[in-house]
Amino acid sequence: MTTHTANALLMEQKSTNVRSHASTPVWLRTTFSTASRVAPGLTAAAAERLFFKTRRSGPRAGEHDVLEGATPSSIAGMKSWSWGHGPTVLLVHGWNGRATQLGGFVEPLVARGFRVVAFDAFGHGKSPGGSMSLPEMASCIGRVADELGDVYGVIAHSMGGAATTIALADGLQIERAVFISPPADPRQFLEIFSAALAITDDVRARLKERVERRVRVSMEDMRATQIAPSLQVPLLVIHDRNDKEVPVRSGQSIAEAWPDADLIITEGLGHQRILRADAVQNVAVSFIDAPKRLKTAA
Length: 298
Known about the structure:
- The protein is α/β, with parallel strands linked by helices.
- The chain is 40% helix and 16% strand.
- The chain has helices spanning 26-38, 40-52, 106-111, 134-148, 159-169, 186-197, 201-215, 224-227, 248-257, 278-297; strands at 2-5, 71-75, 78-83, 88-92, 115-119, 153-157, 176-180, 235-240, 261-266.
- The protein has a nine-stranded mixed sheet with strand order 1-9-8-7-6-4-5-3-2, sandwiched between helices.
- Helix 4 crosses helix 5.
- Residues 7-22 have low confidence and may be disordered.
């Protein structure tokens, strides 16, 4: 693994999109905290529904501009858009994200001769549904890739990186991948979620069992660091040192466990702003494009 630390090159203001239990309504924390002691089984069931529930947020100003030159379609029942011609690069958003968040990667990829496809996973953006899980997200990626027929590379943000890891283990065939701010261990999200609701350890354990029963795989087996050693796809991980949603150690651990991975650590870009940094977009696209450029030079 090669590690690079980017300072001035990728410096911008820190992200303010921070998730913590402080943003959870007091009434909700109080309700779950009380109920977890009175009726742990029912509380775990209610927490399970909330754990998988997705939340749609509106696009940032100018975010939809990229769609003006896109060809809209539906892939595997999900809203999708495509640009350009050539080898296909798939853009994968994260939890509660949307395709347009990765719109900044479209123009530089198309300029280098790639076809770009982005989609809203079920329960996200303009696609139907109201819930999602990590294995289901991986299935969405696999289904989109199957319909496209041939995918050259993937650029994925946050949970999209973890889901792409599972999709690769399930047979997704690509040549190169870029993960931006990827989480390594779904158990961390369970801990954050449990703390946000102030549920007891007993209810958290029951919730973990219910989650695993629903997705039919243990959280331990969903760890990107557990899967990574079996994967051979060249990977670039880009993660910000100041990421408050997914700690930089997650990206570092994935890059360390992945047989052929490079790591770039940025400063001051947080979890969301990192997607809009020109330097991040350029280095990601250059990584995807590297084999094609080497072949042309030869």
